[in-house]
Structure prediction request, 595 residues.
Amino acid sequence: MRAKAGDPPRTMAQKILAGRASDPLLRGERVDVEVDQVALVRAPQAALAEGIGAGLKRTSLEAAVAYETSCMGEPHGLEQRAALLGHGLVVARAGAGFPAPVHLERFASPARLCLTDDPGLASAGGVGMLALWAPPSQLGAALASAPVSLAPPRSVHVQLSGRTRPFVCARDVALDLLRRGLGDVIRRVDAEHRAPVVIEFGGPSVRLLSVGERAVLAGVAPQVGAAGALFPSDERTEVFLRDQRRSKAHRGLSPDAGAPFDEVMNVDLGAVDPLLMDEAGQVRAVRELSGKPVAQVLLGGDSGVTLRDLLAVAMLLKSKRVPPSVEFLLAPPTRQMLEVLATEGALSDLIATGARLAEPDGGLLTGAFYPPPRGALALRTADSDPVAPGAPRPVVVSAETLAYAVATGNLADPRGFKRPVRVTVPRTLPTDDVLVVRERRTDGARKDPLGPPAPLGGFRGAAGLDVFAGAPDAAFLAQYKGSGLLSACVSLAELRHASAAAVGAPSVIRAVVAVHMPTAIAGVLSGVGVLALEADAATTQSLREARSVAVPAASTATEDGLVLQVAGAKVAVRWTARGLERSWAASGTTRAPKR
Prediction:
């Protein structure tokens, strides 16, 4: 995408939005923007119902995809699938893979805008597509080809230089970004401008990274509070799309010279060591935990591993046997990767080592299936969802670090393999999409079995809420019978998952308080009628220790925020919603009121 003569220099995110916005100069707190793609993962039926309420007959978007994520649990209803197909959506059936890597392979396109209900789709930025988390009402409007209101983002530039050393891969670089304080940079820019922040990667070393490796790095966006992430679209991107038989989707994308980045972080890939994220969420060098016995490993999942990584692990473990004390689980991210492993003989090698093949079910990420054993070390290449308080947590590592643990039974630096393997990723990839279902266009009217959109909630009047410390899990929400919850979060990880739970159950979680509330998350919470509040660490901790809190009507809020009542004492918090978002929070939707 090239700037027109006279236009100011733009970042990649600004270029994508400017080409679709009612105001190409992106002035004001919000602009109306047209959407290219929609990806539905967590609640496709809610977004479809909203779309039908907005007048959707059959979507005309470039791509509208609903992902079925339950392979081992309750199956998806055929009625829901028929409704999605009947309105022009594509359905990726259970077994097609985890949503983020499947979307990257089969649908993501450079220089496009995608709205989604799963923040994990930020990894699509590896191909140069901006994927933003949005509430159901905005997803429905996008399906109906209506513009949606978005806050123009700020951008942080991550400049990559150097070349990774043997046994250091993209997962290690992603962990290094966390260790180097990328989250603090994002938080600082967000707090200063009260605008969502997009990470834009650049520098001479970008051309050395495959699109899969770029996706791993882009996937750190939700972990650091960023709204999304972007890589340039270049020759490597064009080759990736050609191998996926989607070469017509390619468009060039790069920032303009002098683009207005708010901050720049420089990263030397040659200085990165094998890293891990321990049970406490701290990033450390692998050598610091060297020698610890490992009981379980899970290779694959929705993030953190590329096809090259899977092939490398198979080569490193060839002719080896998994130790009796180690459980080795293999969950290829996509069906395409599984087929390549099979045709290249790598799958046979991994099975001969002792790997057990697991289906790409969402329960692998939540710990519902194959949870980490208590009192033992469990390794994952994918970021895991939060677990219940007191439950064991996995350690996040790179694929090659995991391979060394399988070979030896202990966690240790993968450079103990001595000789790195040379991996050639095949260029001929299976693209038949046998589990991706499309329905042919029909002229007949179709019955809508999902009914109208959910009734509007919103936060209008005062309420007494029970306090929950952190993010409630699905089991707690299903059993809860009270008047509503206020979720108090002290970490970004807690906030991310509390926010996702609130979007799924806004009538239960009525308010979320955090030490830092990213602007992007505040907008999504407001869009479902949940108060997005911010307080200092001491105040948030005191709320976590309370049993209940009285929240006043939103109409009493001032520019400084709201005053809560906790055990007879007044507690001041800041309401992070601004302008239009405050009306969303009051009405419970981003839909314009009917006149």
